[in-house]
Amino acid sequence: MATIGVIPGDGVGPEVIREAVAILEDLGAARGLGLDFAPVDLGSDRYLRTGEVLPESVQQELSRCDAILLGAIGDPRVPPGVLEKGLLLRLRFDFQQYINLRPVQLFPGVETPIKGKGPEQIDLVVVRENNEDLYVGAGGFTRKGTPEEVAIQTSINTRAGVERCLRYAFDLAGRRAQARVFPGLSDADRAAGKRGLVSLVAKTNVLTFAHDLWDRAFREVAADYPAIKTDYHHVDACCMRLVVSPERYDVIVTTNMFGDIITDLGAVLQGGMGVAASGNLNPERTYPSMFEPVHGSAPDIAGTGKANPIAAILSIGLLLDHLGSPDAAADVRSAVARVLADPGAPKTPDLGGTATTSEVGRAVREAIAAK
Amino acid sequence: MATIGVIPGDGVGPEVIREAVAILEDLGAARGLGLDFAPVDLGSDRYLRTGEVLPESVQQELSRCDAILLGAIGDPRVPPGVLEKGLLLRLRFDFQQYINLRPVQLFPGVETPIKGKGPEQIDLVVVRENNEDLYVGAGGFTRKGTPEEVAIQTSINTRAGVERCLRYAFDLAGRRAQARVFPGLSDADRAAGKRGLVSLVAKTNVLTFAHDLWDRAFREVAADYPAIKTDYHHVDACCMRLVVSPERYDVIVTTNMFGDIITDLGAVLQGGMGVAASGNLNPERTYPSMFEPVHGSAPDIAGTGKANPIAAILSIGLLLDHLGSPDAAADVRSAVARVLADPGAPKTPDLGGTATTSEVGRAVREAIAAK
Ligand SMILES: CC(C)[C@H](C(=O)O)[C@@H](O)C(=O)O
Ligand SMILES: CC(C)[C@H](C(=O)O)[C@@H](O)C(=O)O
After folding, report:
1. By alpha-carbon position, which residue is closest to atom 7 of ligand 2?
2. Closest listed ligand to the CA of B129
3. Relative to the CA of B192, which of A29, A292, B62, B127 has its CA 20 to 30 Å away?
């Protein structure tokens, strides 16, 4: 038995989550996974109605779940930071979801905006540290509102926090070197030696305190993984290389802030926000992990049926992996791969189609059933 | 009379600077600009030979120059940060070069790695704040080297420092709305209302101290420029949009760290590091400004003649603008544009050609003379 706390959230959140939950329900029933769902009302509507961002009782309820599925949070009527810090980052931090896992994989049939690159070149995973750095909320003002105002914002990095993230990345690189974690591609790149590489992305030449710690920890952890290759990229160079030669990356490990930036770039490479999944993981399972599409609430298309549910659906693939159902997870991904590869299958407008959110969701459900 | 301090620096630095200086010499003689050149020996070689990064006497000498032309700094034999902080950032800070100006323009004839975009879509300028933020070097360690180690790095932002940068960006947007600052394109986009837009790129929803200051200052400065439109982009979304729809940007203003990242991405859009120019500006001219190609020392191709001198040459365009010779600057840019647009003209390997650094430099010189 596993209980999934479901936070549909704002904008297109409820629309894509509906499809993801329908698939989980199907799979749960067909495989006897024993999933049940606890809908949780959080987000802009609740905040605007009641002033509550994350009431203690709701957090308690979420803490008893085995995993959380989140749609999207954000609304133009709410000031920046209120929901992000009070809800999204609070859950990531309080539940020690210290890994933000973001696979960047171009599925056959999806177009990338980059010339000359295809699924063989775009298949990497970003392991973003998710509990430290500039995201801790440390900082303040002096002389606020005057011409002499100073505002500071501090990145806090602990050896323990960095090291657990690095170890996760090296373990993941090891698993990827053993087996294709993601479907759709040949093993050619593994034979070509592409697998088993962890790239640290940081800015050691400028952030000489924070990233000196990262750099030292990286070297020391790497020594425990002699079979895994390593390299280092400054964040600016990495952004360049992601566009020009994404094939040089396998597992990227990076800080919270840089991870935020390069995973959006990664989402572009793989065909856009409509297909980018993520998991906020507490690998030890002391607390529930949280799975969410990388996209936001997209208020501009909310209610139009244009939202692509694939990102949310791929996020439940990560959820099933985390809950120990890798076969169900693989079935979700291979169904998505088949739908995306099939020119006749429904696609939302972001992928050049004219289908609605629920038509795409249904196609994936049918592909899973037809397997 | 103007004296240009010339720091060829490391790797390909001296190779590209040679071409840039030759052009400045030609132009100076032909137009009576009265330029003279003070070669300055700084960089890895000096450091490895003598341990000196930036001796006081050299800094004095540089401070008396009207502008500085820098090739590149960096060598694998020098630990990260030593030259970057001790030389490059030191000059940027000590000489109050608080604007890092980085035009992102795709010249006709240059290929961008992005599908479906051409010179009409890729023509923006990034105004990167250059004296504050995470680049100030504030931070430290506690319990260094132990499992309890904590490393912090602090972004410092002052109202005065941010405001002067914002004002520069708004003034620049005004000038771009009046006239085409860069050559090669029609005025169609201006007619289409694309000009006169300043986009703030930050992360207000997470960096709720530092970027709250930026956000408030942005709104207040914008009120002084009623003819200029404004919008706001989170840094992660901006990276996505730069690849998917670069045409939505005119002038981007951003922090030092985010500017570092998005200008490398910008360089990719415009055809790579080989063509990306920059100016570190002290707009008041209290101190010398410094002009440098965005690329680094590229030790892998140093000495092979493969380095593209266009980035360094476009940087002297920015230098000539700054020294008050806009006609000479325009001639440099239009000569570069003609060489790049001419399929028969020499190109370095990064642009798909087989010519050497000096062949390209000569072609630009001849194009200027032939004007
Ligand atoms: C909404 C925001 C706080 C969040 C982040 O910066 O982590 C988002 O951009 C993401 O990447 O999940
Ligand atoms: C070399 C490094 C310190 C520098 C920076 O980060 O500013 C470089 O990347 C740049 O963009 O000029």
Report:
1. B260
2. 2
3. B127
The beta-strand segments (E) located in B259-343 are 277-281, 289-293
Sign of dihedral through CA atoms B229, B231, B235, B238?
Answer: negative
Q: Which atom of ligand 1 is nearest to the CA of B234?
A: 9
Report the separation in Å between the CA atom of B33 and the middle of ligand 1, taken as the mean of its atom positions.
51
3-state secondary structure (DSSP) of residue B142: strand
Could A257 and B148 be called an inter-chain contact, meaning their C-beta atoms sit closer than 8 Å? no
Segments of chain B scoring below 50 in pLDDT: 181-186, 190
Regarding whether A115 and A264 lie in a shared domain, the answer is yes
CA atoms B107, B111, B113, B118: torsion sign: positive
Which residue ranges of chain A lie beneath pLDDT 70?
Answer: 179-194
Residue A285 resides in a domain: no
Tens digit of each residue's pLDDT (9 = 90 or more) over A58-89:
999 999 999 999 999 999 999 988 999 999 99
Find chain B residues with C-beta within 8 A of A157's C-beta: 150-153
Residues A133 and A232 in one domain: yes
A126 to chain B, closest Cα gap in Å: 15
Judging contacts by C-beta atoms under 8 Å, the chain A residues touching residue B244 are 113, 268, 272
Domain encompassing residue A359: 1-96+298-371
Q: Which residue has the tokens 């630095």?
A: B13
- One domain, residues A80 and A197: no
Partners of A231 in beta bridges: A199
* C-alpha dist (Å) from residue B37 to A268, B7, B34: 45, 10, 10
Residue where the block lists tokens 């670069």: B246
Q: What is the CATH number of the domain that holds B35?
A: 3.40.718.10
Question: Pseudo-torsion of CA A145, A141, A75, B129, nearest 10°?
Answer: 80
Task: Verify whether the Cβ–Cβ distance B263 to A159 is below 8 Å.
Answer: no
Q: Which residue of A has its CA nearest to B260?
A: A236
Examine the domain organization and report whether B129 and B32 are in the same domain: no
The pair of structure tokens assigned to B140 is 């430290």
Ligand 2 proximal residues by C-beta, below 6 Å:
A 205-206, 236; B 84, 88, 260
E-strand spans in A93-145? 99-105, 123-129, 133-142
CA-nearest of A6, A7, A9, A5 to A299 is A9
List CB contacts (< 8 A) between A148 and chain B. 158-160
pTM of the complete model: 0.96
